[in-house]
């Protein structure tokens, strides 16, 4: 997304471009507020900055220095806010400087708040990134399916040609046109051979053959050269197109080495190793490191362990045959594979009883946190919405070494366990979100638990004999900041019933637990009580 696209957003149509019109095509990767003039270390490439120049509103030289710093840092542009309120006017020298630097300078209406600028831009950025990631996954799966079902270079090149809308040639290691998928131009072998007399195809480069411009992509793996892909250069490839090219290159390498079956075998070995790291009582660390090296596993490239917990699996196991249970687990695994970007070799998966465990690898060009959120959300939609398979997901970020794999799995499981007790209506949990509850529950002794139960004993005893679930009602009210409507919705009860329970709770406790003075105490009491139920 560039600045021109931002100017098309309805809520930002009143932004006025004062200078830097040539830079309106600058890509915008993020948006932030700039109020500290000397903050180059914190500015990202492609970041759109918003400022009122509050601390330097009367210092033109410092304003100029800041603008030069933004240009040097690779900022995509600058929006000046509250002009006429904080900075009385924009000096012409600032406008001239931005024009000379081709750095877009935009002026916002003086009454437009920062949040009203940032929110619509962030929405557009996230929407575009989401669509881009979905497209990448779609392309990866498409090319992977072509590779597995019909591992011919002809089908791979036709698929790539359709994605790129470009002529594609696969040149083998001898400089011969092995296969082509052309729409507009047919390269002759004689013309290519003539060109190769004074050049090679083992590096990425732009080459000219008979007045036609081609872009050469060498197919190289572990310093071995397997040929090259030639494209008629119409325009620069975008990130998604680059992914498609990389996927086809990988598929051609596998095809050249006849490695499809070997890849499946390698994935099975990786999965078995992952399973041992998670569930073996004793681990030979040195041996595991050698196995990881042999299987080309670099754990520093992995970013999270994701655990899928199948709801009601134990009940199903007691009520159905082993054959049916096996088919059910196979269906879950297949649905997971449909979501995961399998062609990029970006995860290792194993399963144990009612759980599917995924070790997720970093994918270049995407922020790790965004990728994890996208994968978890996609798994939920695929399994719950489309196949009515109920799951909970817990994950733990940051895989440091072989020794920490089990620790991160335990944290992901802890996230599931605690969320079941404290927020049963949530389906995805990052361990960091429940870290404090985990630590608190570990520090409390049996004596502490007894004191907690004693503090809540009026409600516990009442629930025991009247089955009114006052404990659950109060906890749900606290979760939703005393919102009766939301509580009644979550508990499937009428508002009047919730209000009656509130009155009974206050009567039994002798205080209003939702008051400003009491809510913190009862939040801790109920959370710890729930954790120790």
Automatic annotation (TrEMBL):
Purine catabolism PurC-like domain boundaries: 6-125
Domain CdaR GGDEF-like intervals: 288-418
InterPro entries in the cross-refs: CdaR-like_regulators, CdaR_GGDEF, PucR_C-HTH_dom, PucR_C-HTH_sf, PucR_dom
Residues covered by the PucR C-terminal helix-turn-helix domain: 470-526
Gene3D superfamilies according to UniProt: PucR C-terminal helix-turn-helix domain
Residue intervals passing through the bilayer: none
Family assignment from sequence similarity: Belongs to the CdaR family.
PANTHER family for this protein: CARBOHYDRATE DIACID REGULATOR
Name of the molecule in the record: PucR family transcriptional regulator ligand-binding domain-containing protein
């Amino acid at each position: 997304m560039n600045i021109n696209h931002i100017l098309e957003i309805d809520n930002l149509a009143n932004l006025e471009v004062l200078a830097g019109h040539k830079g309106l095509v600058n890509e915008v990767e993020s948006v932030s507020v700039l109020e500290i003039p000397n903050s180059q270390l914190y500015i990202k490439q492609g970041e759109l900055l918003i400022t009122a120049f509050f601390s330097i509103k009367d210092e033109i030289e410092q304003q100029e220095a800041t603008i030069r710093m933004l240009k040097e840092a690779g900022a995509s542009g600058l929006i000046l806010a509250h002009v006429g309120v904080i900075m009385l006017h924009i000096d012409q020298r600032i406008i001239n400087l931005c024009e000379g630097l081709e750095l877009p300078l935009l002026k916002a209406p003086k009454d437009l708040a920062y949040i009203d600028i940032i929110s619509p831009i962030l929405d557009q950025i996230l929407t575009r990134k989401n669509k881009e990631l979905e497209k990448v996954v779609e392309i990866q799966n498409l090319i992977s399916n072509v590779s597995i079902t019909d591992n011919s270079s002809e089908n791979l090149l036709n698929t790539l040609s359709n994605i790129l809308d470009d002529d594609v040639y696969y040149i083998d290691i001898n400089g011969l046109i092995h296969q082509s998928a052309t729409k507009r131009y047919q390269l002759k072998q004689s013309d290519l051979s003539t060109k190769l007399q004074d050049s090679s195809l083992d590096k990425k480069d732009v080459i000219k053959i008979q007045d036609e411009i081609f872009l050469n992509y060498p197919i190289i793996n572990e310093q071995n050269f397997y040929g090259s892909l030639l494209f008629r250069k119409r325009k620069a490839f975008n990130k998604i197109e680059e992914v498609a090219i990389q996927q086809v290159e990988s598929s051609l390498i596998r095809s050249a080495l006849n490695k499809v079956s070997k890849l499946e075998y390698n994935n099975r070995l990786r999965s078995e190793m992952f399973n041992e790291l998670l569930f073996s009582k004793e681990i030979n660390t040195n041996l595991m490191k050698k196995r990881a090296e042999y299987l080309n596993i670099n754990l520093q490239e992995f970013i999270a362990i994701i655990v899928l917990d199948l709801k009601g699996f134990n009940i199903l196991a007691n009520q159905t045959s082993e054959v049916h249970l096996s088919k059910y687990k196979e269906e879950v695994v297949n649905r997971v594979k449909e979501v995961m970007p399998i062609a990029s070799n970006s995860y290792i998966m194993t399963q144990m009883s009612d759980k599917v465990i995924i070790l997720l690898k970093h994918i270049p060009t995407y922020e790790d946190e965004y990728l994890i959120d996208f994968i978890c959300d996609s798994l939920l939609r695929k399994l719950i919405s489309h196949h009515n398979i109920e799951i909970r997901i817990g994950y733990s970020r940051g895989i440091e070494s072989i020794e920490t794999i089990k620790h991160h799995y335990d944290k992901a499981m802890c996230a599931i366990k605690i969320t079941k007790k404290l927020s049963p209506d949530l389906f995805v949990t990052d361990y960091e979100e429940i870290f404090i509850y985990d630590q608190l529950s570990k520090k409390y002794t049996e004596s502490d638990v007894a004191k907690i139960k004693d503090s809540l004993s009026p409600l516990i005893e009442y629930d025991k004999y009247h089955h009114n679930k006052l404990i659950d009602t109060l906890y749900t009210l606290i979760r939703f900041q005393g919102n009766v409507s939301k509580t009644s919705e979550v508990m499937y009860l009428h508002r009047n019933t919730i209000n009656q329970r509130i009155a009974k709770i206050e009567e039994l406790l002798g205080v209003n637990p939702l008051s400003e003075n009491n809510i913190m105490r009862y939040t801790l009491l109920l959370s710890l009580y729930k954790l120790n139920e």
